[in-house]
């Protein structure tokens, strides 16, 4: 038995994850600036951060599910 998330559940999850991702990025930037880390190093740290990468992967999967659900509802 496969459970299918509703459009609202997917939308809520996407919004919560995006909010968390943005807050995490801001925290990384703020801490890095306090430590006087260069902007280029901060950019690399944001790009290579494992947690941010995982969040982006999950967001991609949720977006795919949302698109699939939208396509099923239009057929």
List keywords for this structure.
84% helix; mainly alpha; 75 residues; elongated; 3 helices
Short recap of the structure:
The protein has three helices and no strands.
SSE diagram, text form:
Elements: H1 7-34, H2 39-48, H3 50-74
Structural features, described:
The protein is mainly alpha-helical. It has one domain (17-69). 84% of the residues lie in helices and 0% in strands.
Low-confidence stretches: none
The geometry reads as elongated
Q: What is the rounded Rg?
A: 16 Å
Helix content: over 70%
**How many structural domains are formed by the residues?**
1
Mean pLDDT: 91
- Which percent range describes the beta-strand content? under 5%
Largest sheet: none
- Which sequence of SSEs, written as H and E, runs from N to C? HHH
Terminal residue distance: 23 Å
Give the number of DSSP strands: 0
> What structural class is derived from the secondary structure elements?
mainly alpha
Number of helices: 3
């Amino acid at each position: 038995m496969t459970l299918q998330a509703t459009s609202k559940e997917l939308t809520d999850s996407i919004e919560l994850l995006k909010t968390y991702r943005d807050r995490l990025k801001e925290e990384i930037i703020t801490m890095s600036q306090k430590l006087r880390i260069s902007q280029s190093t901060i950019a690399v740290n944001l790009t290579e951060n494992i947690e941010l990468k995982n969040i982006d992967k999950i967001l991609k999967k949720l977006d795919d599910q949302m698109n699939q659900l939208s396509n099923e509802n239009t057929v």
